[in-house]
Each structure stands twice: as structure tokens, then as C-alpha cells.
Amino acid sequence: MKKIGMLFGKERSFPEAFVQRVNSKNVDGIIAEPVKIDKVMQGSPTEYAVIFDRISQDVPFYRAYLKNAALCGTAVINNPFWWSADEKFFNNCLATKIDVPVPKTVILPSRDLPADTSEDSFSNLEYPLDWDGIFKYIGFPAYMKPFAGGGWKSVYQLNSMDEFFEKHAETEQLVMMLQEEIKFDEYYRCYCIGGKYVRIMPYEPRNPHHLRYVADFKPSAERFKLMEDIVLRICRYLGYDFNTVELAIRDGVPYAIDFCNPAPDADVNSVGQENFDWVVETAATYAIEKAQAHVEGADNLTWGEYIKRSSNKQKLY
User: Are 213 and 202 in contact (CB under 8 A)?
Assistant: First the structure.
């Protein structure tokens, strides 16, 4: 019997529906359940062929548990080693190398010194930064957001240099990105599962949270295919089994705005019933595929094209 475990936090609708759907498929030799942990011993395997991770980004203990599980052969969705290393600024940097349009973006040192550092820790950093060059490159309006993490926490829309300095002073030890604003005509949020299943959803980020999926954008077949290709390219290079990519359409060009979302919102009350049904069904199908392909004691993780090409010393693009 191969077990598929769901590791989750306070969310309920998606994890519970996922477990129920896997089991309702009645696939011979496959069963799903919430992950159960009573001890974690180094180098010891878990009882799960597959673990679907929805919470380790917030719980370091779970991330350590998953790395040990993966080392011992569990197929973890998503790869906990890559997820630990990845962040949004790197994603943007990678996008520039694989022909994915992205907003102009710079990364900024934290406003306050990190704990256990002093000014001497930053002897390689020029003070002041080339603010004129940065603002000329990005322009205003602009967005400032953390370079890592998810959601809309600590995100600022800025209209001037004075406003930037005022808001940057509030960010304390956060490392922030300053990003060109893409004034879009249409906006889409796209699930990608298994590097092959894509769900393109009209999305309106300017609406209140519970109404953001209430949008009537209707892409042409050509634009739909273009967006699908971009989503697949991003997720295959990053190596995420489960991710969302946000695309803003400006002058007919899809710009990837936010595409480091390995634990995206999948609650029925926000994404809507139709999208929820798709993600439950597709995630269950993919997890079963991973369980069936599982080889005991082997590396059963998904590794992205960036890592695979780097390890083989191949040209990235």
C-alpha cells in the first residue's frame, strides 16, 4: 500500500477535499490521509510515498521533516530543497533568461540593519545607493514588496521618490523589491500542476479579496496558448509540482507579475466552486501519478530545468 499524505495548517476545504477525492478514485494500492508525525529521527523514512506540502513555508519544523522524508525517498510536493532556496527576485532574474516578460525590478537592502550585524557588516555596499539610477530604471508609479514570501503583506503602491522613502522606512529588516507598475488591460491567475496541467483563471487583483475571481476577461485562443506556454515554461524551469503564476496583459503582452506561489490559495470560498473542483481533481490525479511512479529509497523529487541544466553544465537558454 502506498500512502499519500496531506500536510496542512489551518486551511480545511482543499486538504479535506483532496484526501476524499484520492480515496474516492479507489486506485488499487493507493490511499490518502492527513500526515501524522509523532517523532522525526534522522535518516529514517516516513510511511508516505508522497506528501503534499501546504504549510512548511510557515513551520520550519515541517520543512526539516520534509527534507529528511525526501532524502529517504518520499516524493514531496513541492521539492522542499528548492522551495527553501527560491525567492521572488531570483524568479524575476530567471525569467529574463528564458524569454518571459517581467516588470523592471531591483532588489534593495533592508532599511534597518539585520539582527547581529553592524555598519561594518556592509563594507561592500555603497552609501548612498544610486537612487537616481534606480528610480530612472523603474519609474513611477511603482510597487514595493518583500523579495520573498507570499500574500499581500507589506506591499506598497508608490507614486514618487518622497513616498518611496517614507514607506521604505516602515519596512524595518525586510529585504524589498522595487518593481515597475504594469498598467494592465486583463489579468489572469494560473494554476500549474505537475508541469503539465494548467488552469487559466480571469482575476481582478483590484477587487476585494473575496471578489478577485469575479472577472469576465475572455482571452483569444492565441493569447490563451501564449499564456499557457509561459506558465509551463516558468514552472518547468523552477521545478514546482504545484504553483500559481499571475499574468498581467499590457498592450497584448503577458507579463509574469508573481510566480513564486508554491502554496497558493485553493479555498473554495475565494477561488470559486468551478476552479476549486478543477484543482482538487487535478491535484488528486497528479499525486496518484507520483505515488504510482514512486521508487522506494530513490530520489523521487521533481527538479527544475534550471537545476538540471546547471548540474549538467548546459547552457541555460
Answer: yes
168: left (phi > 0), else alpha (psi -120 to 50), else beta?
Answer: alpha
Domains identified in the chain and CATH numbers: 2-80+286-301 (3.40.50), 87-101+183-261 (3.30.470.20), 104-180 (3.30.1490.20)
Beta carbons within 10 angstroms of residue 38's beta carbon: 4
Is pTM beyond 0.90 here? yes
- Residue type at 178? L
Sign (positive or negative) of CA dihedral 303, 80, 85, 230: positive
DSSP strand pairing (50-53 vs 105-108): unpaired
- Give the number of other CB atoms < 10 A from CB of residue 64: 14
| Per-residue pLDDT reduced to its tens digit, 217-243 | 999 999 999 999 999 999 999 999 999
| Beta carbons within 8 Å of 309's beta carbon, 6+ residues apart | 315, 316
Distance, CA of 109 to CA of 123 (rounded, Å): 13
- pLDDT, one tens digit per residue, over 163-197 is 999 999 999 999 999 999 999 999 999 999 999 99
3-class DSSP assignment, residue 184: coil
Q: Are strands 50-53 and 142-146 parallel, antiparallel or unpaired?
A: unpaired
187 in Cβ contact with 217 (< 8 Å): yes
